[in-house]
Hints:
Strand content: 15-25%
CATH superfamily of the largest domain: ATPase, nucleotide binding domain
Number of domains: 2
Order of helices and strands: EEEEEHEEHHEHHHEEEHHHHHEHHEEH
Helix content: 25-40%
Largest sheet: 8 strands, mixed
CATH class of the largest domain: Alpha Beta
Strand order of the largest sheet: 5-4-3-2-1-6-8-7
Structural class: alpha/beta
Bound molecules: adenosine monophosphate
Number of helices: 14
Amino acid sequence: MKILVINAGSSSLKYQLMDPTSGEVFAKGLCERIYIDGKLTHKVPATGLKVERDIPMPTHSEAIEAVLSILVDPEYGVLKSTDEIDAIGHRVLHGGDKFVESCIIDEACKQAIRDCIPLGPLHNPANLMGIEACEKVMPGKPQVAVFDTAFHMTMPPKAYRYAIPTKYYEEDHLRRYGFHGTSHRYVSKRAIELMGKPASELKIVVCHLGNGSSLSAVADGKCQDTSMGLSPLAGVPMATRAGDIDTCVAQFIMNKYNMTADECLTMLNKKSGVLALSNGVSSDFRDLEAGANKGDEACQLALDKFCYEVRKYIGAYAAALGGLDCLVFTAGVGENGCTNRAAICEGLEFLGVKLDPERNKVRGEEALISADDSRVKVWVIPTNEELMIAQDTAALCGK
Ligand code: AMP
């Protein structure tokens, strides 16, 4: 079976053609500079083939056409015909409180995604464009929407409500939603398999640490709390996002520097986080580590702050869950950043977390990294959001 997984951004579109059962990726790639000029990068993992082409992409439709055309290309393709694609799965950022799970895309689903645009103003329109481009180019092909927010919809009100007047929740749907849900779902499901115990007996904290970072508290296989909020700006400091800050900081900056709310939010989203703390050295954790190793104090502070805030969330979630059995690291920094993992876990011995320094050297591979006498099992589990999207798509399309 072959599922095409699409992750459409405002000027880019990532794709993977994969088998939802084996997880084999037949081809994957990226369309960039949509609306500007257009560039396609296409890879075939089995042969190591990589092709880059400049292709005009005035809209997402031309980007999808370029993807389909390279997938059936006699030289670079992996399909004889696009009829071999069984269904298409789309990553959609914001499902609001309407979607607790993935769904088949029909007019009602598209309208619901449209209704969530005020909550996801940058991503939902792009996700819709990806969906509509596929409808145009492959009419009648079954499509499924997989929401970044859906896994977190099991949170209780005490976790998702903000302590502000109720009308903002009831009329405007302002609440904690959380993101990276597909990753948190995939990784927590895998952790439950690896722990070999019923989900009901496991209290898990998942640390998805990448360019964007979020943590989730999972009990009985369900999300109980998560660090991102109404938007992906909340939680721990990230590559360029500030994470949790006192709202009065924004008010002060807007007043003193005559900034609009949008300008201030752009600063908090794009110019803050570890990039800002390192005095602009980098938003990339590898560069920060290199800087810190050379004695750059700002780089060290950025790393210290990041690890400190992640550690605080782990402690908070252990308290929220009433215990901790399993701690999981995933995404770029979580899977590869051994030094960061060690720094995060330092001081968590009182919770029963004890890393094995040798095992913790692992990068990008599934592995148990806690010591044999660690009460809490600590795992590195590489995330695979595309596989989760492909599996949901296959299941919903009866494939
Ligand atoms: P992601 O958003 O999941 O792709 O993660 C990207 C982040 O992972 C970047 O900040 C990278 O610097 C970080 N990363 C990748 N490899 C390493 C590594 N070996 N050590 C620390 N961070 C890493």
